[in-house]
Amino acid sequence: MSVKLTVIRQAEQSPMGELTPAKLPVGEVIAQSRLGQDVTLDESGASVGVWDCSPGVFRRHIMNREFSHIISGWCVFTPDGGEPVELRAGDAVFFPANCEGVWDIREQFRKTYVIF
């Protein structure tokens, strides 16, 4: 049986797609985000890639589980009903399924992710 690995290469310098506004902005400064190396793995129902976002505040709208590694920048994520969590370059975070909350991106932010 052959096993195929999906690798995100050089995430710090990954070419990125077009900027798009945050889907659920909070306030007047609307964050702009974009994807790079975004791959959907049909056989597992997962997607992997690089996400980059400008400063701004918006609601998390992805209801799947997610694991991310922060490459650069920093933010505060506040899960609904929970305490704010500061995330900085070098941190890793797991979002359980149905984790809603508010992203407050304070500095240009880049992370790799696996959504499953």
UniProtKB/TrEMBL annotation:
What sections of the protein cross the membrane? Answer: none
Q: Looking at the Swiss-Prot or TrEMBL record, what is one Pfam family this protein matches?
A: Cupin_3
(S)-ureidoglycine aminohydrolase cupin domain span: 46-113
PANTHER family under this entry? CYTOPLASMIC PROTEIN, CYTOPLASMIC PROTEIN-RELATED
Under what name is this protein listed? (S)-ureidoglycine aminohydrolase cupin domain-containing protein
Origin species: Halopseudomonas litoralis
